[in-house]
Amino acid sequence: MMKWSNRKWRFFILSVLLGILVALQVKALNTGIKYLSIKDMYTQSLELESQKSEILLLNQKVDELKAQIDAYQTAKDDAEVDYESFLKSEIELTKASAGLTRMEGPGVVIIVADGTRDLIEDENPNNVLVHDLDIRAMVDDLRNAGAEAIAINGQRVVLGKSKIQCTGPTIKINDVVFAPPYVIEAIGDRKFLESAINAPDSFSASLRSWGVFVEVNTSISVVIPPYEGFVSYDYVK
Q: Minimal CA–CA distance to 107: which of 158, 136, 147, 151?
């Protein structure tokens, strides 16, 4: 058997060390790179649209409040109007619009749960799981379809107050953690709300295409509880 000279051994050792250093360098360069699945990219684009819709709804709320202020001033200046009764009725309407009262009416009940289909080879399991972005997008679809009150697993969802956040395999709603399935209830025109969930181009349709379970049923009587979370202001003076 031919013996290696000291020079060949040194060359071999240097080659191995060089290979290790190259591998470590490649790993360091790849650190921080996050690859998104098609579903993640689609979901994030819908999240952007969701935020745009929320801004639009908040602007509409500002216009409504300005109209209420004008109504207060008109009632105050009109001697024939019972100003106290007027204010009491306005307070009740304001509490209702703020989500602080129990509401009942026709609407829909939606069940959303993780998918149970078999995964394709090397497929990300997140594709068939329900995420906070999915729930928020469905809530926005219901609002855009005219939903007057919405609750998820018994938690009232109020624009600008409620938070729907991811907590691993579960979702936190108004600081209460829930695991799937998620039951979304909404009051409004049953046909419009059902269409918002079943329309071919709806967000729910995309969830179904990925294997997530989504079922919607109409109801002549949906009961939405009042919002019971805390309201705090960090910047308002």
A: 147
Please give the model's pTM, rounded to 2 decimal places. Answer: 0.63
- Rounded distance between C-alpha atoms, residue 24 and residue 7, angstroms: 26
DSSP code per residue over 96-146: HHTT-S-EEEEEEEEEEE---SPPPTT--GGGGS--HHHHHHHHHHHHHTT
Q: How many residues does the chain have?
A: 237
Please name the fold of domain 38-224.
Alpha-Beta Plaits (3.30.70)
Taking a C-beta distance cutoff of 8 angstroms, is the pair 102, 228 a contact? no
The domain limits of the chain are 38-224
Measured between alpha carbons, how far is 134 from 212 in angstroms, rounded to an integer?
A: 10
Over the stretch 165-202, which tens digit does the pLDDT of each residue have? 988 889 999 999 999 999 999 999 999 999 999 999 88
Of 130, 151, 155, 101, which Cα lies nearest the Cα of 207? Answer: 130
Distances (CA, A) of 163 to 28, 96, 172, 201: 37, 19, 8, 26
Question: Using H for helix, E for strand and C for coil, what is the string for 154-181?
Answer: CEEECCCCCCEEEECCEEEECCEEECCC
Half-sphere exposure of 215 toward its Cβ, with a 13 Å CA cutoff? 9
